[in-house]
Predict the structure.
Amino acid sequence: MATIFSETLSRPTAFGELMQIMSLDQAHAIATSKKPGTRTTKEESETMRRPRSTQILYLVIGLLLVFAVVSACGQAEGSDQAASVDLGEEIDAIVQERGLTPDDISAALQTYMPSGEHDDYIMFASGGQSGQVLVIGMPSMRLLKVIAVFTPEPWQGYGYGAEGTMEVLAGGQVSGQDVLWGDTHHPAISETEGDYDGQFLFINDKANGRVAVIDLRDFETKQILKNPIAVNDHGGTMVTPNTEWVIEGGQYAAPLGWEYSSLDNYAEDYRGMITFWKFDRESGRIQYDESFAMELPPYWQDLCDAGKLVSDGWVFCGSFNTELATGGVEDGNPPFEAGASQRDMDYLHIINLERAAEVAQAGGTIEVNGFNVIPLDVIVEEGLLYLAPEPKSPHGADVTPNGEYIVVSGKLDPHVTVYSFTKIQEAIAAGGFETDDYGVPILDFDSVLEAQVEVGLGPLHTQFDNQGYAYTSLFLDSAVARWTLGGDFSDLHPEEDWTLVDKLNVHYNIGHLVAAEGDTVSPDGRYLVALNKWAVDRFANVGPLLPQNFQLINIDNQGENMQLLYDMPIGIGEPHYAQVIAADKLSAWEVYPEVGWDPHTQSLHPDATNLGEERIERNGNTVEIWMTAVRSHFTPEHVEIEEGDHIIWHITNVERAYDSTHGFSLPGYNINLSIEPGETITFEFDADFAGVYSYYCSEFCSALHLEMTGYLLIQP
Amino acid sequence: MKSLRRKLLGPQIPPQDLAANPEKYRLPGYFLIAASILLLASIFLPYWKMTLLAPQYPGGLSVVAYLNRLTGDVREIDGLNHYIGMRPLEEAAQLERSLSIFAVTVISLLVLGAIFVHNQNAAYLSLPAMLFPLIFLGDMYLWMRHFGLNLDPTAALSGAIEPFVPPILGEGSVAQFRTVASLQPGMYLALLASLLILAGLYFHRKTYKPLVDAQANS
């Protein structure tokens, strides 16, 4: 028996091989990785007195014993029953048939989410040109939701009549015109003391220079603001450690406030900018009047990051085109791509936000297009801005978790350049600066430099983990570089400080990357996602426009052990940046708190209607309707009006059950609502076309969903 | 006057006997006081609960009956019941619920009153409290039967669901729902009170029967 036993265990099957190659620790870690945020059923949590890891270990040992005994008996007695419970062979067959490697199986085990289990992390990714935000569960990489932001979206009833959503979209008008798309770039989760708090999400629209606020109690967009002084933006959104300010940096310089000036006057009339939007948590809105901008030299400011802890109160932004190139390839000038890439150094912008806010408060601003702007001469006079040379055409400027270092990647330089905040402060205190043509002081490069690490070609953005590593995306190498931080982080990793540790190929042309809570004061490590611009051969060909590729990477193990886990195609737009928050930090409502809730104001709607209060009232040419929706009927089911009437229609979903959403579609008038449990929605329209219209519930709600309808009769 | 009092309250305890055996005469009272307190306490606790289980409600839906009110997912259950033409649960036993607190208080006080009665009238005074759990369940059964058998014939699923009486205890099923009905702490207190009353009456009889017999023979 003992011999058979050992023979069975050492039989070289593919699965056995896997178990040998994956160290026991690794297999154990995968099998037991139940982290906070994973929900368990009641019975499960009650019976889970014993740590899950021990349970699973026992289970695995138990299964192995059963397997061994059954195999042994099968061989000894020639019983046919053995095969039917031989789990090992079944899995073995799958492994053989699909030609899976041990790494494949390890990756599958780490990302597979059994039905009903929830992900540990939630990623908020920009939706690029879709103007939306993607909500993705990690590590399963399942798309959970697409939040409508700058673009109308019918499923959520966003921009198709519902008053609140129409108001939000109208906030994003440009020169009084609706602009119903956006190029969403950089989401920012609200922070408390430098850590994500899961209350709000901000995102910018690069194309039109707009910023939006999403309330994470219901995952809906509550506010869109158009930047009054800039046509477009890029360096946004980021938040300060307590979300006092939402940062929106500019990009392509232009005369501030939408003025006209010839490109011949570029140096004199064109300007960069950075805007600080004042956020008020209580109302969940940006306070326009308390916000201000700073006029910057006409370099093309790029991504920014807010300081934290020691550097709290400061903001850092990269820039390029300090050459002040104005393009014009058609006239024989160097094209922008060359003209803006001549100098070896551009300028890291170092902004004293705390002081700038005081200056703005004290009236050190001028009005540009009705908006408070601190002019460049005041900035220089008050010492609000310093420049530090940074290697060639940088993209990211990222502050380490302790706030001490600022990591910059010159995309045309193979290094990441690390600046010390302490040294910056010392250099500022020492004084005696050179200045640029606009009088802005330039700090000496060597005096503020902490380290340079050669990581590879085309470094762009950097994120951090909890093991003293930084991760930088390498666009040209199509890789992620893992390198070590020094200073406070020195003891966290076994390698030498400021050295490259590992490079992992990704597929392909990585832009941003994001680690779990990787830009906060306490990153989680564990997972990293490469946001790849090209997919090329990773997925089935769906025509010349290919999806982007999000690649999930395990960064749990130190050293040269980054592991690629999963490819997720994004077929909705080109995401730029994303942020990843522990799922247990989010606490969205299951249903709206009370029947008659207005999500736009997050308070009771004045026209909330309960069962039995439904009515239709006419006042001259205006007809007002108070309607309820419940499975499976609207009340009233007949609405009779006359051509030319103005209709004000309120609908309350009086349901209290989880997921009992009703839709409301009114054909011919471009109206579609999503009325979630407890919600009251108002919409208005002019009944300009006579006829018979059937309105219906457009969200399959119940067995009698099709019967949930009614007639709007418009008499000629 | 004296004879009427004797007839209602039974014989007086001979003072020398009371002095000799005080515990013997107090014992029935202990049980009845405890029963009365338990029954009064049960006012604040749920008596009965039914949980409805269906795939789309992973946590189940439940309705919890107190003496004077229904709590739980009543709104959702009513919403579902309208498909089969069942009337809203709030319409059931309205009179009983409005009187219940008063009634339970009164029958608890009657139990306390029984302590001062030394003949078989003590049993009559305690009887409503002793039978209260049965009364509660019986009344609820009648209402459930009434609601289950009198479905609105014009309801959407009228043809699909036959009139039914859900089990008042244990498991049953209707449409895609499995129902599980169970007694709750309030009911257990009331049942315990019944047992205590029974015990109290046993000792009451043991204590006072000889006195009553002696009175009859005198």
